[in-house]
Amino acid sequence: MTQKNQRSPLVIACFTIFLDLLGFGIIIPVNSFYVQSLGQGPMVIAFLSASYSLMQFLFGPFWGRLSDKIGRRPVILISVAASFAGHLIFGMSSTIVTIFAARLLAGFGNANIGTAQAIVSDVTTPENRSRGMGMVGASIGLGFLFGPAIGMYAAQFDPQYPALLAAGLAAVNFALAYFLLPETRVIGAEQGHHRRGMISIKEFMASMSRPNIGSIIKISFYSTAAFAMFEVIVGLLMEHQFLPSESRNTHEHIAAAAKMTGYFLVVVGITAVIIQGGLIGRLTKKYGEKKLFQLGLLMMGLSLGAIPVVAALGGYTAMLFLAVPLAIGTGIFNPSLSSLLSKSAPKDQQGAILGLNHSFSALGRVVGPGLSGILFEWNEGAPFYVAAGVTLVAFIISFNVKRAEDI
After folding, report:
1. Which of 31, 273, 343, 394 could form a disulfide with 141 if both were Cys (CB 3.0 to 4.6 A apart)?
2. What is the rounded average pLDDT of the residues 301-319?
3. Can you say how many angstroms the Cα of residue 243 is from the centroid of all Cα atoms in its chain?
4. Model's pTM, two decimal places?
């Protein structure tokens, strides 16, 4: 592709991810508190988050392999349509059963990030891959920046408005992809051996045995599980620490808790956008992907372990300051790891392997929230200490990863 043609699908792919994550981010500030108002506790809230991610685990490889077979564009269109339906059902739901069904459907649709990353891989050179993945990371960061801000504002009027807004964004996303996203995957004879469907055990083992791929996917699983443990429960921690329990489940309480969670996530989003959108390319050229994602893991682990201490001793303002090093850690970790994985994967299996990685990241978001909910009911600080320990496991595994030039 010419540079002009490369830029178009890259921008559209990143915008697709941005709108996906914007819709997801809109729901985050109010999700826990809305479910809590229906009489459910932290464990059910955590399992609701896990159900969304379970579908991403199951269907990440499916979308990625399907995009290797039939092309990226139709996969993006089908998956975004599923996301629209899931968000719409959530916005119209008032029972826990229909809310679970809605999140399962939205998770099925939003398992497409691996496919969007494959578009980036299709249209970038190895030298510019980390910059392209940095744009993906910035798109995710922007989604988390504006999503919670919009969600906490919408929740001031009605707890179900955020999900309806997310559905509207998915509809816009579908229209933009339909009219503007070109096909980037050249379908030829070399793709003929790929099956349409989920990855087989034999193919999974073959992928995991390739240099770097197995270790990187394990790191993705552990790091995502750790971050998901924080993400699903940090709002409840702040609510319990900083809001009176007497008013719990009232509209005013839900609105205040959503605002508090939203501001925290906005700080995370602003920091991540600065790192991933403006600095990651220069940092990668200077230090390389491996050093960056190892540093990111260390910063994440230390920040996660500090959260309950800071919440108890420093107050809400101190929590906002702690969000900065946490976001810097994730901001340099995610694009660096994705770039190195892309460079380690065969060209004709980019979609499948990136989808497999996204799937195992989603498995981390299944295990993490479920464990977090159980731990939180036992001790409010326990999920964060365990998350820090899990991040340490990922850091130890990182020493098995080779630099791209050493593969």
Report:
1. 273
2. 92
3. 28
4. 0.71
